[in-house]
Amino acid sequence: MLFLESPAGVGFSYSNTSSDYLKSGDRRTTDDAFVFMINWIERFPEYKGRAFYISGESYAGHYVPQLATAILSHNINSKSNIINLQAILIGNAYLDDYKNTKGYIDYLWSHGVISDEVWTNITKNCKFSPLDGKACSDAMSSYDSGYISGYNIYAPVCINKSNGSYYPSGYVPGIEPCNNYYIQAYFNEPMEQKIFHARMTKWSGCTDLH
User: Fold this and answer.
1) Full-model pTM
2) What per-residue confidence (pLDDT) applies to 144?
3) Cα separations in angstroms, 169 against 164, 185, 198, 209
4) Which among 3, 9, 142, 203 could disulfide-bond with 187, CB atoms 3.0 to 4.6 Å apart, if both were Cys?
């Protein structure tokens, strides 16, 4: 199993040319991932022809099918099957920001987080498209969903205290709302970075790429 961090600059991945970070985009990510796969297969030829699957979640709803398309196009044009793609798997695909926002607003309203009046005002002034203007943004700013998890409104959240300490607001089996703190500490351990064969760096959960 391979875990590919992309585009360059995400996680422990990096480019020796800093200007590359200004060129991030779906096409560049696809091209780089495809070149990586071809080079990896050449480096480990015992995997040539093995059944190959691509999976990802969230924005990989774009990355996965685009990489699959690049692989299939290469296989057809070169009449080879160096990457024997069998299937793709996408979980919780983040495909369209406008439709995602519409679904989120409807979900909050249908679960009593925002009122009928606020929801009516938003749906009246927002088309959830690039055409939306100030009336929509004003309507959207009229609600405050409070301090809840965007992934599970019923889940506990991480409470951050002014002294720098933190703790979960409640306990639910299988949910750890403060895990970002543990992940950050783990990936910044010099010994762990050495085990990963990663370049010693300051790891963070988000990268400010274009």
Assistant:
1) 0.80
2) 83
3) 16, 21, 35, 32
4) 203
